[in-house]
Amino acid sequence: MDIILNRRSVRKFDLNKMVPHEDLIDLIKHGESAGSARRQKSREYIIIENKDFINKLSEIYVKSSMQVKECNQMIAVIGKTNEDLPCVQFVPTDCALATQNIMDYAVSKGIGSVMLGTYPDKERLSKASELLNLDKNKFVFTFICLGYPIDKENAFYDMNKFDESVISYIK
Ligand SMILES: Cc1cc2nc3c(=O)[nH]c(=O)nc-3n(C[C@H](O)[C@H](O)[C@H](O)COP(=O)(O)O)c2cc1C
Question: Domains in the chain and their CATH numbers?
Answer without folding.
Answer: 3-147 (3.40.109.10)
